[in-house]
Amino acid sequence: MIDAQNLVKWYGPTLAVDDLSFNIPRGQIVGFLGPNGAGKSTTLRMLTGFLPPTAGRISVDGLDVLADSQAVRAKIGYLPENTPLYPEMRIDEYLHYRGRLYRMDRYARVQRIDEVCDRCGLSVVRRRLIGQLSRGNKQRVGLAGALLHDPPVLILDEPTAGLDPNQITHVRRLIEELRGKHTILLSTHILPEVEKIADKVMIIAGGKIVAQGSPDELRSAVASDARILVEVKADAAKVSQAFGGVDGVKEVETSMRDGWCRAVVTPKDGCDTREALGGAALSSGWLIREMRHESASLEQYFIQITARQSQAGVAEDTL
Amino acid sequence: MNQMLTIAKRELTSLFYSPIAYVVLGLFSLGTTMIFFIGFGPGQPATLRPTLEGVVWLLIFLVPAISMRLISEEFRSGTVEPLLTAPVTDTQVVVGKWLGAMGFFSVLLVPLLVLVAVLEITASPDFGPIVTGLVGLVLVGGFYLAIGAFASAATQNQIIAFMLTVFIICVFTIAMFFLPQAAFLGPGVREAMFYLNVNMQFADFNKGLIDTSNFVYFATGIALFLFLAVKLLESRRWR
Question: What strands lie across the sheet with A200-205, from one edge to the other?
């Protein structure tokens, strides 16, 4: 549905997007993940045709974004970052205005506005001025505006930024309801948000895709980094010596806390060292307070790889 | 076309929601009425001509106040993004916004119509020059608003847009009035400069003359600056 090839975007001397290629099949929900300034918004803006890429090609539903700009725009519902709206308009007025821009006739507008207001939970505030709405409600108006013309492609730039946990859940549920009907590309810098709903996650940093796949695939990519945390009543030096001697252990970090030694053991790839570690502690006669298998979360993975990217000194500052 | 009118309508309503519109409307009514009553009294000609002559000068400062937020505000607030990703062309956006501002400008004529009514009640004015004078005024307004749309596409800052508009208007009025008096200019250049002077063009309308060349002048001016505004809007995406 969305096909991007070798996208490059320079802002003057700053490289914001560096040779990005991806393909999003129809009906998928794809999460675009990255730290602030990674080039997410820039990429989304290029997909919507708001910004032309310095190099590369984008097609949406087989149409070129630049050459068939008008046709492509009609297929996309776009929620820009920070949800810009006209504060002096009422929600109803704004949605009618958007509808007219998308060439919807009056009948279709009235019907669709009822639908999207219902769906986005705006029915009771429809006559209110946008400028007087709460952050959450503004976000809903933005979403309603993007959904209004029932576009096959939805591009949502940080749809949950600045919302409270309740509202985030609401937005997430809304996006889940849209699954199947629309191809959805959403960006965020909060990982758990996309982990739950996205079919595919693309992690970008420094304008490049650094990892992509389904959340499960990404999780299995990090699983090998799982660590074991053991707390025993013993001296730190002795513990790291004893645990370090266990088969399959790569690294032991120890720290003392109120008389207990906390050891974080990193096993070699694919080794399950829990049993051996327990045995080592028992044979030394140490008391065990805690033993936990710490499977690395996607979050850590995300932090790891994006940190690696920015350490590599790739262009940091974009929009 | 429909989308252009949609944009125009939104622009017009939003102008009425902004305090600046009422300030402009108030100052304009006050200014016109004051100018009107200078030449109003027994024995004076029942005409709007001196009033409109003064009003044209008022427009130099009042029209930029209407136009300064036309496009700059969209960029400042970010609403330009949903606007320019909707299926509308840049030309539709610029012309639509200009039309909306023209809609507001036409409201400014209401106090003038009141003055016409005063003339009608107290004397029997000749309506011919009054009508052509008002037509000329609308054209001047349209030209200044097109300049304003251009300036407002050039910057996100309303104040800068205002100043830039006033400056360009002054080039077409004050500069084109004084420059032709410079001795070193040839007669051809002088004539050309007089032709470029907005006030000279307007004076014909105010006299009751309707001349194609005057229409051509304003139509070209409006088209030129709206075209430049569209180009500027396009170029802002490339930068």
Answer: A76-79, A153-157, A183-188, A29-33, A200-205, A208-213
| Alpha-carbon distance values, B116 to B53, B123, B150, B210, B224 (Å) | 15, 10, 33, 20, 33
ipTM of the complex: 0.88
Q: How far is B105 from chain A (nearest CA, A)?
A: 20
Task: Write down the pLDDT at residue A317.
Answer: 44
Find all residues with CB under 8 Å of A306, minimum gap 6, and list them: A34, A35, A38, A203, A205, A210
| Count of C-beta atoms within a 10 Å radius of residue A169 | 14
CA distances from B66 to A233, B144, B225 (A): 77, 10, 16
CA of B202 vs chain A CAs: smallest distance (Å):
36
pTM for the whole thing? Answer: 0.84
Task: State phi, psi for A52 to the nearest 5 degrees.
Answer: -80, 140
Asked whether the beta carbons of A84 and A38 are under 8 A apart, the reply is no
Of B82, B18, B57, B231, give the one whose Cα is nearest residue B144: B57
For residue A268, the 8-state DSSP code is P
Q: Do B78 and A80 touch (CB under 8 A)?
A: yes
Residue A93 scores a pLDDT above 60: yes
Whether residue B85 lies within 8 A of chain A, CB to CB, comes out as yes
**Token pair in block for residue B230:** 């569209």
A-B Cβ pairs (cutoff 8 Å, strict)? 66
> Half-sphere exposure (CA, 13 Å, Cβ side) for A82?
10
Which pLDDT does position A318 carry in this prediction? Answer: 41
> What are A208-227's pLDDT values in tens digits?
888 888 877 777 766 556 77
Judge whether B14 is closer than 8 Å to chain A, CB to CB.
yes
Chain B contact for A76 (CB, 8 A cutoff): yes
Determine the residue of chain A that is closest to B4 in CA distance. Answer: A101
What element of type H or E holds B161?
Answer: helix B158-170
Angle at A240 between CA A234 and CA A243, to 5 degrees: 95
Identify the pLDDT of residue A315: 45
Q: What mean pLDDT do residues A111-120 have?
A: 91
Contacts 24+ apart (CB under 8 A), B213-221: B214/B136, B214/B139, B215/B139, B218/B139, B218/B140, B218/B142, B218/B143, B221/B143, B221/B146, B221/B172
In angstroms, the CA B10 to CA B99 distance is 10
How does DSSP classify residue A129?
A: B
Q: B235 — contact with chain A (CB < 8 Å)?
A: no
